[in-house]
Amino acid sequence: MIVAQDVSDPLNIGALFRLADALGVAGLYLCGQSPRPPHKRISKTARSTDQFVPFEYHTSTLAAIEKLRAENYRIIGLEITDTSEPIDRFTPDAEHPLALVIGAESQGLHPDTLAVLDAAVHIPMYGRNTSMNVIQACGIAIYALSRKLL
Length: 150
Description:
By secondary structure, the chain is of the alpha/beta class. The protein is built from five helices and seven strands, in the order βαβαβαβββαβα. The protein has a seven-stranded parallel sheet with strand order 3-2-1-6-4-7-5, with helices on both faces.
């Protein structure tokens, strides 16, 4: 599952639908300021995947996380923090499905969201910049996590 917190660009949401379909993600939780279908710009980028990839909208990311946790999900945030682990060193628990929480394009995950994660992971960066587009990062993370689970 992918949980998008305040990912406000409809083109990025459309790309999330395509990514979820391509990599076999169970669905999307769109939270806060994240736009949701039906939306012309989401549909254009999603290339019809918004018609069949399951999604839910939640005003509160914390409520969405609480629901997923009740369904036995392990909640993983994609964010560089003082305690985050490089994604290539992270070992997922095969007994629990994973929910990857991604944050807004410019602000990342909210501090209250970081506080309730089971773990935070980051993508090691080798250039000068320490960030990348949220969808690119999400694609790398989902691919890396799925390889470890398969």
